[in-house]
């Protein structure tokens, strides 16, 4: 079973330290325990959602904000650039 | 008793971990002669550069200061400057002179390539022989200034190599040594945590201003920094945003107070942990760290970045099992047991501290042995 590390109790994502396949039960380690079923294949080192979040919610890792969800996140879902957006250095969002 | 390593004590009180003769190009058109001399003479390193000619104002100052800083680095026993003409060569020479080390210079005008290579080879040879009389002796680790860097980062970086480097950095600061973390863009989203460690309001403001200035410049240019930082390979490695990357990158600085803020290539004037405001890409950042006088650099990598600095031996640390398998040639220190065996960061970090003493005492790094080394000095303005 693939393993994933939770770095802070407040986090809503965990980091996979093995390669995950859709349907795998992923074992949580670190600041949380239990098992989360992966909804998609998730590559080594990528993140999965461990607590559902609505669109616009803060995504937390290390207990800190790493970005905002661009759509609702379900438990077991791959969390990456397709559903999380950075809030920093975004000159492209400035209206001119 | 103080922790020690076997180093080269220089006349000016600095301690080198290597005993090289640096052959330094004053500008890009000198590089072929610099390389030819270094091919001919064992014990030399080629410090090449691009541009300089046509640079002006702050950029030209940075170029001269950085070349001179690498020449002043305690790892360098003597310097041979290769210039085009005497006036610009003297700009670098006069900045190295206070170190008291032997400096020779050759200018291509009016000698031409063949004569410059011949005369440069002769002088480099003499410098190398003279330097070889130096012997290593026990020196306190408080004499060490180390740079901490990361590149080719992924999500393992923030979990393994960077906190391991941070543990080593804490040990070194506790010994009375100094550490420099840099890469300004890699604090976006983590700057509040690092700022809280500043020793006073002046240091705090200087640090925060540097980070916000960089973000403001990106905003003013209408740019989205995504894709540039985090890079495409960072993102393939699982890093989603600059905030996530920054929170992992900051771990390299350990946990000790932030004592000072430095400009590009500037040497710290006091001990402890420092931040240097400099661009993140490895080659130009490593040059700035070497110019500041770092005798060693510790470089955390996830998906793998092999490059090292010419002047400052660069120790590659990775905790990514896949990279350790596929790019083992380029990795000096394996931190994978944190994720693979549940070994604590502090345990692996203490092992890295011991390894740092070894490298400072002469154990060679992969980038030295394979000569996977490069120099670039940041440019902030166009040439004319």
Report on this structure.
The complex is a heterodimer of chains A (96) and B (384). Chain A has strands at residues 3-6, 13-16, 25-30, 35-37, 47-49, 58-61, 64-69, 78-79, 84-85. Chain A is an all-beta fold and 96 residues long. Chain A has a 6-stranded mixed beta sheet, with no helix packed on it. The model of chain A has no long low-confidence stretch (mean pLDDT 95). Chain B is of the alpha/beta class and 384 residues long. Chain B has 16 helices and 14 strands. Chain B has helices at 31-40, 57-72, 86-96, 108-111, 113-131, 155-159, 161-174, 191-195, 201-220, 232-236, 242-249, 282-291, 321-326, 337-341, 345-360, 366-369, and strands at residues 4-9, 15-16, 20-25, 44-47, 76-83, 103-107, 137-140, 145-150, 178-181, 258-262, 272-276, 296-300, 314-318, 333-334. The longest helix of chain B is centred in the middle third of the chain and has 20 residues, at 201-220. Chain B is globular and about 60 Å long. Chain B starts with a strand and ends in a 15-residue tail after the last helix. The model of chain B has no long low-confidence stretch (mean pLDDT 97). The chains are: A mainly beta (96), B alpha/beta (384). The interface between A and B is medium-sized, with 32 and 36 residues.
Write a short abstract of this structure.
The complex is a heterodimer of chains A (96) and B (384). With 96 residues, chain A is mostly beta strands.
Please give the radius of gyration of chain B in angstroms: 20 Å
Count of DSSP H/I helices of chain A? 0
Oligomer: heterodimer
Which percent range fits the helix content of chain A? under 10%
3D shape of chain B: globular
The coarse silhouette of chain A is globular
Secondary structure: number of strands of chain A: 9
Secondary-structure map with pairings?
The complex is a heterodimer of chains A (96) and B (384).
Chain A: E1 3-6, E2 13-16, E3 25-30, E4 35-37, E5 47-49, E6 58-61, E7 64-69, E8 78-79, E9 84-85
Parallel strand pairs in A: 1-3
Antiparallel strand pairs in A: 1-2, 2-5, 3-4, 5-8, 6-7, 7-9
Chain B: E1 4-9, E2 15-16, E3 20-25, H1 31-40, E4 44-47, H2 57-72, E5 76-83, H3 86-96, E6 103-107, H4 108-111, H5 113-131, E7 137-140, E8 145-150, H6 155-159, H7 161-174, E9 178-181, H8 191-195, H9 201-220, H10 232-236, H11 242-249, E10 258-262, E11 272-276, H12 282-291, E12 296-300, E13 314-318, H13 321-326, E14 333-334, H14 337-341, H15 345-360, H16 366-369
Parallel strand pairs in B: 3-4, 3-5, 5-6, 8-9, 8-12, 9-11, 10-11, 12-13, 13-14
Antiparallel strand pairs in B: 1-2, 1-7
Helix pairs in contact in B: 1-5, 2-3, 2-12, 7-15
